[in-house]
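Example: Endonuclease III.
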Amino acid sequence: MGTSLEPRESQVAEVIDRLEDEYPDSTISLVYSNRLELLIAVMLSAQCTDERVNSVTADLFEKYETAEEYANADQEELAADISSITYYNNKAKYIRSSTQTIIEAYDGTVPDTMTELTSLSGVGRKTANVVLQHGHDIVEGIVVDTHVQRLSQRLGLTQESAPKRIEQELMPIVPETHWQQLTHLFIDHGRATCTARNPDCEGCVLEDICPSSKLDSEVDLASGEPWEQ
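Written out as structure tokens, the predicted fold is:
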């Protein structure tokens, strides 16, 4: 039976325990070697797969090495360099603008506070959280991407749909020591098993505690729609 544990803190603890066994090496999949590269990679990853981002940044990070080089890049040329990425024109503008701000306001160094990071063009709380966690070893929130959103809803941890509200609901029930790792675990499980359209509920290590399980439930709590039969 797919029945979530009560209270939600117990559900979270069991979910984390099982997923850590399932994905013992779970970590960020973006490839980078410094904070600037991390920032650029995360900006590019919005609504785009990490695999695609890594294929693009392999050449991008060789061509552009400093904030000055990004800020001074020709818009059309930079857009062409990332043209296989979704919304590449806008992302090229964001990169040029944000690196210009980094130069002018932060002496060319990627800032280390949520307020400063989210002041950069194209950088929201999700991107800032990733940069803080993996670039500065500062964990002050939970990164809520599409996988975290979907799994949190399916597992009965939240009924919210906006990432900021989901983060606000998760933070009190997830131990702070697991704020960072929860995201990686949910991403790995979302890719491997709990996919958006056709999750493998029969092979899922969380099936018996998932109120969205297709084996028991008629409705996907993430979409609110009936499961396709």
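DSSP finds eleven helices and no strands in the chain.
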